[in-house]
Amino acid sequence: MSADKSPEKKGSSPGASAGDAQEPEGPESTVPAQREDLGDVIAVRRGMFGARNGTDTSGYGGLVRTVRLPGGSSRPYGSYFDEVADELEGALEEQDVEPESVIEKTVVDRDELTFHIAREHLVRVCQTLRDDPALRFEYCTGVSAVHFPGDTGRELRAVYHLRSLTHNRIIRLEVSAPDADPHIPSVVSVYPTNDWHEREAYDFFGLIFDGHPALTRIMMPDDWQGFPQRKDYPLGGIPVEYKGAQIPAPDQRRSYS
Prior knowledge:
With 257 residues, the protein is α+β, with helices and mostly antiparallel strands. It has a domain at 72-232: NADH:ubiquinone oxidoreductase Nqo5 subunit (Beta Polymerase, domain 2), CATH 3.30.460.80. Helix content is 16%, strand content 25%. The chain contains 4 helices and 11 strands; from the N terminus they run E-E-E-E-H-H-E-E-H-E-E-E-E-H-E. It has helices spanning 81-94, 99-102, 122-131, 194-205, and strands spanning 34-35, 40-46, 64-69, 73-74, 103-109, 112-117, 139-147, 156-164, 169-177, 183-185, 208-210. The protein has a 5-stranded mixed sheet with strand order 5-6-9-8-7. The longest helix is centred in the middle third of the chain and has 14 residues, at 81-94. The protein is globular and about 60 Å long. The protein starts with 33 loop residues before the first strand and ends in a 47-residue tail after the last strand.
C-alpha cells in the first residue's frame, strides 16, 4: 500500500499540526442518540432459561425478566453514524427510491448502528453500501439469525455485520420475516462469502434465502425434521441417532424448586 493511500489515524487530518485539537470519532466520545421509543416488549421470561412448559429445573423459578428490543433512535446518532445514514439515504434517493420505504428503523444501541431494512430492498441496500464511494462496506462477516416467537409478524430475523475497510467503519443490517413466510433475498451475489452462512441460517432457523445458488443443510442430515435453533424447537425428548437413547424433555427432568 502506498503512503498516500494508507488510512489516517483517528482524530488526525492531512496537514494538521501536533497542537491542533481534533475531535475524536469514536461512539464513546459523542452524545448518545436519543430514543424515539422504548422498544417493543416481545416476551416475559420466567426462570433462568424461560421454560414455558413444565417445572423450571434451573433453581431460579422465581426469576422474571422482560425481553424488550431496542427502539428507534433520533438524530444526532453520534460518531460517524450520521454520515453513514446521510450517505445511504442520499444514494437511495439517487436511485429514485424513497429511503423511508427501505429503512424501517435506525437503532443506535451499545455503540452499534443498525439499519432495519425491508426485506424486498435488502440486495439493493447491500449493493449500495458496497459500491458507493462514500460508503464502501466491502466486507460482510456473515449473516446470523434469531427467532422471537412473541414478536408476531417478525418472528425470524437475519442480521448482517458489514465492515468498511476503506473507511474503517462497522454497521449492522437487520431484516425480519414472519414464521408463515420465512423468505429473505440472498445476498450471495453481492457478498459471495455469505454462501455458507446463509446455508447455516437456513439449516438451524428455517430462513429461506431466495436466489441462493445451493440452499441445502450444512450441519444437520438432509432428512432432519425441524430447525434446531428456533425457540419453539423441543429441548430433549428427541431420539439420539445411532445410540437408541433418549434425552428427557425439561418437564420430565429432576426439579429443584
